[in-house]
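Lab channel / #folding
Pinned by the channel admin:
"Please post every new chain as: sequence first, then the structure tokens as a reply. Keep commentary short and put observations after the output so the thread stays searchable."

First post following the new format, from NK:
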Amino acid sequence: MNTHIRKSFIAAALSLSTIAALTACTSTSTDTVASDCQPQYTFPTIKDGVLNIAGPDYPPLFTYQRGDIDGVDGDILRQFAAESCLNTTVNLLPTAGVIEAVKGGQSDIAAGGWYPTSERAEFVNQTTAVYDDPGVIVGKDPSGLVTDYAGKTIGMNQGMLWIPDFQRWAGDDLKLYASVDALFQDLLTGRIDVAVMASNESATRLATAPSDAGLSAVRMEETDTIPTTKTPSVTNFPHTKDNQQMTDALNAFIMKIRDNGDLSAILEENNINPDFANPQTS
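Reply from TO:
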């Protein structure tokens, strides 16, 4: 066997086995579609009649408990699936496995506040911007200027937009986490000096932190040191590659719920600034 082909085969097999392991937490929702349902949107899915959603446990943006999809993205996708006459299934995964599940054909769409990037666009389709979710630095009396933390230990959850830039700048001082729970726990115990997080996620964690923790968040300032701080921090819904019908359907739905106020209401219900429904894309 050609060495290059053999290596590719092994890599593909390992990737598939990893995804299979990660998707062990797959559950079917209790949604039922009426027999006379008339879809407002039509597009192909991996399994006919079902929208398979991959997402991490990431309040307030996505949660899945006892068959109920919740959080901002959960509320949005529940409504989108209903208007498309689709049932839903959920792959509840670690952050690092979510995009891989969509890329590998295990899920139709990713939930959980994903920033659009050119790198992800090589493997998945991406939608128009959905809502703002700016980056913040969380710590004790934190500074918004990244360079103030040169030589300090910085924590960040996997999958964040800024990781490659931080890796180039901070090197071994950057510590990556598979879950926000682990990240925030290390921040609370002082194992890291600060955490770089998305605004909406940090607000939820700070609200439940011990009162004597002394933690707060400040918006991360733009800096040439981390070029991606100059990139708009907006979310989108990554979904199956080359599925333009799904892209068009999602974009039309996003525009509709922005225009009719549903998106603002969903954000407010999840204790997020409703003004974030009009994301800053430039």
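NK: The helical segments are 3-22, 71-83, 95-103, 163-170, 180-189, 199-208, 244-259, 262-269.
TO: also worth noting, Residues 135-230 form a domain with the D-Maltodextrin-Binding Protein; domain 2 fold (CATH 3.40.190.10).
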